[in-house]
Amino acid sequence: MGARKRLAALARKEALKTQYFAKLQNCPSSPRKMRYVVDLIRGMEVNRALGTLRFNKKHAAQDLEKLLCSAIANWEQKNGRKAEEGELFVTRIYCDGASTLKRMRPAPQGRGYRIRKRSNHVAIFVGTKTND
Predict the structure, then answer these.
(1) Phi-psi category of 118—alpha, beta or left, where left has phi over 0 and alpha has psi -120 to 50?
(2) Which of 31, 80, 81, 126 has its CA 20 to 30 A from that of 73?
(3) Angle between helix 31-41 and 46-54 (nearest 10)
(4) pTM value?
């Protein structure tokens, strides 16, 4: 790795120390299905987002609920106090595609159809409105 890349990587690493986030990697659902739920809670206050996720029927909402609880716990751990009502917000959340498992399914007349089992990565950042 060159010196310029190393310095940029160190700067990114230092910037992450002041942010409060949680990551979910290799979640076994397609990114498209996860983005439906991610778009619901973007920019919401965390208690309201937890309620939205708890009563959502989509399976991806369960994974995001656990991830949001983890991000809140990370914020509380770094700040040394409990989060108050209306203080924390979902500042940034995104879902990217991860690796895809490729499988073959038998098809008529000796052919094979391809099955793509997709997975995704989700990152959620929480913070206060005054801070961001």
Answers:
(1) beta
(2) 31
(3) 130
(4) 0.85
The CATH number of the structural domain formed by 20-128 is 3.90.470.10
Residue with tokens 């940029």: 8
The CA-CA-CA angle for residues 52, 54, 58, to 5°, reads 85
Residue 38 near residue 64 (C-beta atoms within 8 A): yes
* Ranges of each domain in the chain: 20-128
Q: At 121, which helix (H) or strand (E)?
A: strand 120-128
The label of the residue with tokens 């700067």 reads 11
* DSSP calls for 16-84: HHTSEEEEEEEESS-HHHHHHHHHHHTT-BHHHHHHHHHT--STHHHHHHHHHHHHHHHHHHHHTSPPP
11-45 residue pLDDT tens: 998 988 888 999 999 999 999 999 999 999 999 99
The answer to whether the CB of 126 falls within 8 A of the CB of 21 is: yes
